[in-house]
Specification:
This protein is an all-beta fold and about 200 residues long. It contains no helices and 26 strands. Strands 1-4-7-10-13-16-19-21-22 form a nine-stranded mixed beta sheet, with no helix packed on it. A seven-stranded parallel beta sheet has the order 2-5-8-11-14-17-20, with no helix packed on it. Strand 23 and strand 24 form a beta hairpin. The radius of gyration is 18 Å and the shape is globular. The chain starts with 6 loop residues before the first strand and ends with a strand.
Length: about 200
């Protein structure tokens, strides 16, 4: 189900059963499967794959050749970089123990959840069922195997927190004590308590 304001190029493969929000664009060779629920003003880049039943909020960007496997859930304003992979099989096998080919009934897909405003850098892999907190940033090439708290900046294999980021995506700088962090772009102040960052309420 799509509206006249949706742009889908001829080479894209979009299921008639997918729901695509107003103002969204789906580019060359992308595939959007059955049951997808995509919000308004989303962009799906060249060669990207959006799996069956994936849910995406408004204003999401899925860059070229990213693979978003079901049942992933993306909040509003999520950025998925080029060639990112969101997995869905905790114990992957092509065959069962008896040598028969696995079918859809032989395993239970699990999804990655990415909260509002979070960004996943190019070629990063998020191993289901991890949750990426709101406004967090996963660095390019990272492999995420455990949950990422809101505003965390994680990098490496496996990914570990190396700092904090604000809503603008810029790394925060230390304030006047160990528990205070400042955004150099917006001036917002954040407080860290037991490994959790909270933005100061104006």
């Amino acid at each position: 189900m799509t509206s006249s304001s949706v742009r889908i190029v001829d080479s894209a493969d979009v299921s008639a059963d997918a729901s695509i929000g107003d103002g969204s664009s789906i580019w060359h060779l992308a595939q959007v499967r059955e049951g997808v629920k995509m919000g308004a003003n989303c962009i799906v880049g060249r060669g990207a794959y959006i799996g069956t039943g994936v849910e995406m909020g408004d204003n999401c960007k899925v860059q070229n050749y990213a693979l978003v496997y079901e049942p992933a859930k993306l909040g509003d304003g999520v950025f998925i970089g080029p060639a990112v992979v969101l997995t869905n099989d905790t114990y992957p096998r092509a065959i069962n123990a008896d040598g028969t080919i696995k079918s859809a009934q032989d395993w239970e897909p699990v999804g990655v959840t990415i909260e509002r405003g979070a960004s996943i850098g190019a070629r990063a892999t998020c191993v289901a069922p991890v949750r990426i907190g709101a406004w967090a940033t996963v660095a390019a090439g990272a492999v995420v195997v455990k949950d990422v708290p809101p505003h965390a900046l994680v990098a490496g294999v496996p990914a570990r927190r190396i700092g904090w980021v604000g809503e603008s995506g810029v790394p925060l700088v230390a304030g006047d004590d160990d528990a205070t962090w400042l955004c150099p772009t917006t001036g917002s102040r954040y407080f860290e308590i037991n490994g959790i960052l909270t933005k100061e309420v104006a």
